[in-house]
Amino acid sequence: MGTLDWVVVVGYFFVMVAIGLWSRRRVLNIADFFTAGGKMPWWLSGISHHMSGYSAVMFVAFASEAYRLGLTVYVWWSLTIGIGVGIGAFLFAPRWNRLRAKHDVKSPLEYLAKRYNLPTQQVMAYAGALLKVVDIAAKWAAVSILLRGFAGVPITWGIIIIGLVTMVYSVLGGLWADALTDFGQFVIQAAAGFAMFFAVAGRLGWDFPATIWDKLPDSHSDPLAGPYTSTFLMALFLIKTLEYNGGMWNLAQRYMAAPSGFAAKRSALLSSALWLVWPLVLFFPMWAAPLIVPGLEGAQAENAYIEMGKQMLPAGMIGLVLAGFFSHTMAMVSSDANVIAAVINRDMLPHIWKKVKAFSADNQLLLARVTTFTFIGVSMIIAIASGGQGFVLKVVVDLVAATMGPIAIPLMLGLLPWFRKVGSTAAIASVVGGLGMWAFLYIEQMNKAAWVTKGVLVSWPLLLSLVLYLAIGFLKKEPSTERDILLDSLNSDDVSDEPEKVKA
């Protein structure tokens, strides 16, 4: 990297911190910190939803899979998310918003105490929080690998530098800072993505999206290849539909922050369109990479995008592309930190530390900032301890994708009126059974069991969790008038018959 590249990167960091400082003035209480007070424009909510859904993992782990296997990574990742979010625009997005508008809900898990019961809420809160801290550690590792590849910065220092910048604007500005930096990062990412796309086009010709496939192995144009089977695809589609419509808690926040349920629906449709189209701009250079930087084997494939950037981009452009990588990771981490802080402050701490309920508004806001700071710090420590290389894809697919289903099923299906008689027994069994199945399969995989493929590891925990939720819910119905009132209130934006709020 040259001087101009460093100027671009450092300038980007200063802009992110400045946004955090500016956003701090808009955060007067925890409602502003966690849900932007329900005042976020639908288009900003939609862009923020999209940007918060992926990170530099795309340019490390997924770039590696695109280099090795071709088209399949778009099919099982971007396409499933785009379609899933489009479905969720009608099923889930408006309901999340109405939880905030009608019930003063500030955390995606807050409604669970009333929907099921307190033990169910606590089981899901602890399981999800532990999963998220490891997930975010993988994101730090991914972006630090990129920083090392482009600039020679050691992984540990890369995590510290990027983590501290993210920590500053997240702690100061809450969800407003997250969303505004998401928008700025979207603009930077667009410039960086098109820069790489045009550079590849300049090398291979403007028709390269159509012509590269004849020069690549035949399997690179297959929708499913390598370990990514139809079973894996179907399981991941259900997982991503649940995950990106609120199972990934930070994305539920984006819908909650919109002014109304109708606005949240528009946000989801915008995010869905972006998921279907924009990743193609980013993936085509990755698919062309074997023609430009051939011979990257094994773990070296994680450096495919880095090697292309070094060869093809002029001064200043490498810094812009690297800033684009940062934007992915910082967007996801800051939004995850915010929602984890919401879960800890609203759903976990009040049952551990009774005095929290009596905190003043100022002290609640201070506690939210301290929790955000702590979460980011712990995730950075785990990332540093991991060493980075090889850690990223294993966490994202083998851990996050495989365990997200069991955690998300009771949370997401609990919003829908069709499952109103499914109670806490089914919900807890679903979470515990699914995670138990994952633990068993993961141990078998560690013991080199050939039958534990990626498809098995991802699909079996999801399937068991879903079966337990539906079967126990059907056999042991647990009707509740309070639950009926809650679910019925989520059907429309009409507040004339607003029921009692979940929490004061």
UniProtKB/TrEMBL annotation:
GO terms for cellular component: plasma membrane. Signal peptide: none annotated. Gene3D superfamilies: Sodium/glucose cotransporter. Its main location: membrane. The keyword Transmembrane helix applies. Pfam families: SSF. GO terms for molecular function: symporter activity. The chain crosses the membrane at residues 6-22, 42-62, 74-93, 123-143, 155-177, 186-206, 226-246, 267-288, 317-344, 365-385, 391-413, 425-443, 455-475. It is a multi-pass membrane protein. Keywords: Cell membrane, Ion transport, Membrane, Sodium, Sodium transport, Symport, Transmembrane, Transmembrane helix, Transport. It comes from the Bacteria. One of its GO terms (biological process) is carboxylic acid transport. It is found in: Cell membrane. Belongs to the sodium:solute symporter (SSF) (TC 2.A.21) family. This is Na+:solute symporter. It comes from Lentzea aerocolonigenes. The lineage of its organism: Bacteria, Bacillati, Actinomycetota, Actinomycetes, Pseudonocardiales.
